[in-house]
Amino acid sequence: QQQQRTQGEKNKEKTDQMQSQNGDVAENSSNDGSYHYRMFNFFNRKFKIREPEPPLDVKMAFMHFSQDGLHMKPSEFRRFMVEHQGETGCTLSRAEEIVNNIISSRHHITRFTRNGLNLDDFFHFLLFDDDINGPIKLEVHNDMTAPLSNYFIYTGHNSYLTGNQLSSDCSEVPIAKALQRGVRVIELDIWPNSTREDINVLHGRTLTTPVSLINCLKSIRDNAFVSSPYPVIITLEDHLTPDLQAKAAEMITQIFGKMLYFPESNKLAEFPSPESLKQRIIISTKPPKEYLEKDHVSASTKLRDASFDDASTNSSDLEGYDSDQDLDDFEISDPKSGSGLRVAPEYKHLITIHAGKPKGTLKDGLKVAADK
Questions:
Q1: Angle at 155 between CA 56 and CA 135, to 5 degrees
Q2: From CA 261, how far away is CA 30, in angstroms rounded?
Q3: Which structural domains are found in the chain, ordered by start?
Q4: Are 172 and 221 in contact, with CB atoms under 8 Å apart?
Q5: Is 157 one of the annotated active-site residues of the chain?
Q6: Closest to 199 measured CA to CA, from 154, 242, 153
Q7: Long-range residue pairs from 362-371, CB within 8 A, at least 24 positions apart, any chain
Q8: Active site residue 203
Q9: With contact defined as beta carbons under 8 Å apart, do 125 and 117 qualify?
Q10: Could you tell me how far CA 257 lies from the centroid of its own chain?
Q11: Catalytic residue among 64, 84, 157, 354
Q12: What is the pLDDT of residue 16?
């Protein structure tokens, strides 16, 4: 027993020594031999989604119409709608209905204990809630006969993704839903499939699962003008070879038919108006170059092969090229063509809006150029 106690004391001394070295402070809190350890080396990580903060005018309106400055009751909300928004037909029962709908949609657990809107609820109602706070007038009340470049356009981004940009599925369903909500610009990232004989839509160099281009085009055709007759712009982020560009052009012309708009001449003196482009589909992408410098052809071929080959690709194949260089900065050359001729003529002819990064200031980027 004496030997066992001695060994136990030795083990305890070793434990105390190790904990002291690791930055632990041991405190004997009782007589039963138990110890409590207070850690002083640790990390505290906080993850929080940053939401847009209500602007000053929204804060001032909320403070003006809410009696306590913290919550806006239905009667106060009605006064805001009548006096500030000019909706004189808003009754107290209608105000109560709106407030209850906002609370139910934003506060699922505590909705039964709330009887008014907080500032964030009020801000969300004004700017983000199309279902509850839709447009006052459904009919178009703006002049729609100016060139298309004069208007703000409801634009989608990665319109084919069902979830996050790294590992979600790609599908034509989100495209249909976006168009049904009134989105007028659909973005498609187009890549060769695994056999390089057909075209997929996916978020490149990620784990997203692809969807075929033809399914996406059919979804656009079937839903383009469900919510609005005004034109739909398809923005293509093109990673195709000339052969596949020609195939894409064939798909686009066959699926959209007379819905597809493209100018008869290469340049437009002035872009058509939304009114004249009703029920039309427009293609936008970065114009492909017809010829490449020899070194760019070589670089793009190596980068393309590295991006599509399997994991056995040797990193030395890219020696001499900047690994941080985006593939979009290179044209993708056709390995079957030794001449460097790059463009499928049918594909180039369909490009109505020449996409690209604007140069200079925002004011410069918004200028209307006759050759663009």
A1: 55
A2: 84
A3: 2-39 (no CATH), 56-127 (1.10.238), 148-288+343-365 (3.20.20.190)
A4: no
A5: yes
A6: 242
A7: 368/147, 368/149, 368/270, 368/271, 370/267, 370/268, 370/269, 370/270, 371/267
A8: yes
A9: yes
A10: 29
A11: 157
A12: 57
Torsion angle of C-alpha atoms 52, 56, 58, 59, degrees rounded to 10:
100
Distance CA 289, CA 295 (A): 15
Record the tokens describing residue 290, joined without a space: 């017809």
- Residues facing residue 235 across a β-bridge: 187, 284
Residue at token pair 């847009």: 52
Dump pLDDT digits (tens) for 118-165: 999 999 898 877 778 876 666 788 899 999 988 989 999 999 999 999
Q: Is the dihedral of CA 101, 102, 105, 111 positive or negative?
A: negative
Q: Per-residue confidence at 32, pLDDT binned at 50, 70, 90?
A: low
Cβ-based neighbours of 188, under 8 Å, separated by 6 or more: 159, 160, 201, 213, 216, 234, 235, 236, 237
- In this model, does residue 89 exceed pLDDT 70? yes
3-state SS, residue 125? helix
**Number of residues in the chain:** 372
- For residue 236, CA distances in Å to 80, 160, 221, 254 come to 45, 12, 16, 17
Q: What is the mean pLDDT of the segment spanning 165-169? A: 93
Greater pLDDT, 360 or 22:
360
Q: What is the pTM of this model?
A: 0.59
Long-range CB contact pairs, 75-81, < 8 A, 24+ = 76/116, 77/116, 77/117
- Radius of gyration in angstroms for the set of CA atoms belonging to the chain, rounded to a whole number: 31
User: Which one from 203, 296, 349, 354 is the annotated catalytic residue?
Assistant: 203
Q: What is the rounded distance in angstroms from the CA atom of residue 104 to the CA atom of residue 115?
A: 11
CA-based nearest residue to 102, from 73, 60, 142: 73
| Cα 142 to Cα 139, 150, 225, 274, distances in angstroms | 9, 12, 19, 11
List the single range of 103-112, 190-199, 308-317, 358-367 with lowest mean pLDDT.
308-317
